[in-house]
Amino acid sequence: MTQQSVATSNKLDAAVLKVAGVVVLGAIMSILDVTVVSVALPTFQSEFGATYARVAWTMTGYTLALATVIPLSGWAADRFGTKRLYMVALALFTIGSGLCATADSIGELIAWRVVQGLGGGMLMPLGMTIMTRAAGPHRIGRLMAVLGIPMLLGPIGGPILGGWLIDTASWHWIFLINLPIGVIALIYAQLALPKDNPEPSESFDFLGMLMLSPGLALFLYGVSSLPEAGTVRDNKVWLPMLVGAVLVVSFVFYSFRPRHPLLDLRLFRNRNLTIATVTLFVFIIAFMGAGLLFPSYFLQVRGESTLTAGLLMAPQGLGAMLTMPIAGMLADKVPVGRTVPFALVLIAAGFFTFTQVDPHTSYWLLCGSLFVMGLGMGGTMMPIMTSALKTLHAAEVARGSTLVNILQQIGGSVGAAVMSVILTSKLNGSEVIPGVTDPSGKPVTQAGLAIAAQQRPELLQQFPVPPSLIERGLDFAASSFATTFWVGFALVLLTFIPAAFLPRRREPSHLLDGGTGEEQRPTPVPIH
């Protein structure tokens, strides 16, 4: 193929952009939903009278559902067709959104969030499959650059939209808004996506799924029950943790037996894939877990409205939007071992500010730190994933992409559960106010009353206490957030260890496009 014909074929025609529009719409809806919910967690706490560790399950359950269906989507797409399955995923996500809005308890909301996650988890990998087929492997890099910026509007717009909807209407609308978007996306998909011919493929590892998914859910449920139980010896804590751990360990041993396992752990023989996956896993536990707490600090300690908290989170998305396209171009020319450590330095520098928070920390400092973290994040995840998958043989790419992406979702689930448990445990250590109980008869702590009073000042008339007590409560709450951020910061620093072993020189890619000799780019799926 001549240079001129390659350049011509690299251009994205109208037909490809029409298909890209469907995928972008589904991606924005799915990604928007995660960031919208992140600013709503304190609202769920007050609405349902639940602890932070309990309401964090609206995120943990969602990401666990994503992890369950990512490996299922490739098999199902071959069996039922990508267009049909993509429309089913859109419908499931939209129906799940409507059901979330009807929830009367935190348990119901978590259950419907799982339904939402089952749909949302298929949207991204199926979308990438549809895009690769429409554009061809040689144009996927250019396509990812086009898709990257609209998809980053989710993290920027989500907290702002969520805050505005909660302030002007109610929390129900953060889910109801998906209904009209979902209907439009379904109609658009029906009209724009080309018909495909499903071809039954390899068998699906249902036994592996029955071990891994319940195992992770049970283990994380035990961990998140710790603050409420107060001790590891409680049956509600150790029993699910033990059963979950046994299932996960059993899965690891079992996964080497089937020809097509749910997760092909044999791929860890590839050094690059192993190092990249470990780096991503540790990073995501820190960043995604602690990242959920940033808006909560603005809401609970600073007493901001949900809209203001959303606006204060916007610099992080803006930073990522600036560096992600640049990092995508550099990933083809410069080994990630030379770029990712610099991106991690930016993340660590921004993160450190949050370990020092108090009730009066400058917003200029916090927003500047979020922007710096965003710059670092844009140069971290996609380059690492691309580097990992480039050294795999073409036949291994689908399994490698599944492995990397499912471990991302597991990392996000673990991070959300662990960070919420640490924060809840610290807040539970606040001093009890003598003789003051809530409507259910439970004693009220200084930090608990101070946080509640930030959102509902009228409570101070119901519980007349001196201003100094509220100030002490806010100091304690801010200190609890800072301690939790220290854990996240330590994990970010830990990420530098595997990152030091990322490839520092260019390595030949094994991904060749159908004998043409052209490099075929892997299509990693961005984390939700």
Automatic annotation (TrEMBL):
<feature type="region of interest" description="Disordered">
    <location>
        <begin position="509"/>
        <end position="528"/>
    </location>
</feature>
<feature type="transmembrane region" description="Helical">
    <location>
        <begin position="476"/>
        <end position="502"/>
    </location>
</feature>
<dbReference type="InterPro" id="IPR020846">
    <property type="entry name" value="MFS_dom"/>
</dbReference>
<feature type="transmembrane region" description="Helical">
    <location>
        <begin position="403"/>
        <end position="423"/>
    </location>
</feature>
<keyword id="KW-0472">Membrane</keyword>
<keyword id="KW-0813">Transport</keyword>
<dbReference type="InterPro" id="IPR036259">
    <property type="entry name" value="MFS_trans_sf"/>
</dbReference>
<feature type="transmembrane region" description="Helical">
    <location>
        <begin position="12"/>
        <end position="32"/>
    </location>
</feature>
<feature type="transmembrane region" description="Helical">
    <location>
        <begin position="306"/>
        <end position="327"/>
    </location>
</feature>
<feature type="domain" description="Major facilitator superfamily (MFS) profile">
    <location>
        <begin position="19"/>
        <end position="507"/>
    </location>
</feature>
<feature type="transmembrane region" description="Helical">
    <location>
        <begin position="143"/>
        <end position="166"/>
    </location>
</feature>
<keyword id="KW-0812">Transmembrane</keyword>
<feature type="transmembrane region" description="Helical">
    <location>
        <begin position="52"/>
        <end position="73"/>
    </location>
</feature>
<feature type="transmembrane region" description="Helical">
    <location>
        <begin position="206"/>
        <end position="225"/>
    </location>
</feature>
<feature type="transmembrane region" description="Helical">
    <location>
        <begin position="85"/>
        <end position="104"/>
    </location>
</feature>
<feature type="transmembrane region" description="Helical">
    <location>
        <begin position="363"/>
        <end position="382"/>
    </location>
</feature>
<dbReference type="InterPro" id="IPR011701">
    <property type="entry name" value="MFS"/>
</dbReference>
<feature type="transmembrane region" description="Helical">
    <location>
        <begin position="110"/>
        <end position="131"/>
    </location>
</feature>
<dbReference type="Pfam" id="PF07690">
    <property type="entry name" value="MFS_1"/>
</dbReference>
<protein>
    <submittedName>
        <fullName>DHA2 family efflux MFS transporter permease subunit</fullName>
    </submittedName>
</protein>
<keyword id="KW-1003">Cell membrane</keyword>
<feature type="transmembrane region" description="Helical">
    <location>
        <begin position="172"/>
        <end position="194"/>
    </location>
</feature>
<feature type="transmembrane region" description="Helical">
    <location>
        <begin position="237"/>
        <end position="254"/>
    </location>
</feature>
<dbReference type="InterPro" id="IPR004638">
    <property type="entry name" value="EmrB-like"/>
</dbReference>
<feature type="transmembrane region" description="Helical">
    <location>
        <begin position="339"/>
        <end position="357"/>
    </location>
</feature>
<feature type="transmembrane region" description="Helical">
    <location>
        <begin position="275"/>
        <end position="294"/>
    </location>
</feature>
<keyword id="KW-1133">Transmembrane helix</keyword>
